[in-house]
Sequence to fold (236 residues):
Amino acid sequence: MKPIFQEHDCLSEGAIQEYVNSRLSNTDRHRVENHMLDCPLCSDAVEGFTFLKEDKRPAGARVLNWRLFSMAAAALVLLAAAVWIYSSPSGEEALFAQYYESYQSDLDIQLRKSGESAQTTNTGLARGLKAYQAKDFSTAIAEMDGFLKENPDHAVARFYLGTAQMADARWTDAEQNLGMVRSTGMEYWEEASWYLALIYVKTSRTESAKETLEALVEPGSGRYYEKAKDLLEKIN
Fold:
């Protein structure tokens, strides 16, 4: 069963109601009381819920305390705001989510263009591509990584390794491999630059993102020209 509150978070409405109605175990009750010692916000909320419970008595027995009611209402508003803030993505996260999509594999075309032999394609590279196309990124990473140990200068495989790592949220590894591809200034330079820029946005390195996007925009055209220009305007 999922706990009604987390030990280090502010109390949920459910936890407060359970406490006020004396339905918590001794252990959970002590946790609530210990939390209130360090959190005036939750203490006010509990006090307000207690008041609301007592206010359900017959009219003649009610003792209205509007200051307490206001404190409870304010505490609940602040709690709701805190939950919204912590659950909402940051500006960088939102931008990344808006622009990121995993790279659509065209490696089979690249292999034919480069004249790879059937023997060469029957390796971890081919298996990695198949896994990548199936969005099985963990398998794709393992296969391509193994292939690159024997073929460290294979830029195409390294690009796909980097994008697979990116799709698997392995940001540091993805940055390293895509950076190696971009540094060659040859095949997949544009693609590697775009995905590197997104990693920089994701990891809040705005200046690095700007520099990378500016390099994509500078030629005045290209596969990612429009997207790079649009994203650059948003982070400037």
In short: The chain has 14 helices and no strands. Residues 109 and 115 are 10 Å apart (CA to CA). Residues 95-235 form a domain with the Serine Threonine Protein Phosphatase 5, Tetratricopeptide repeat fold (CATH 1.25.40.10).
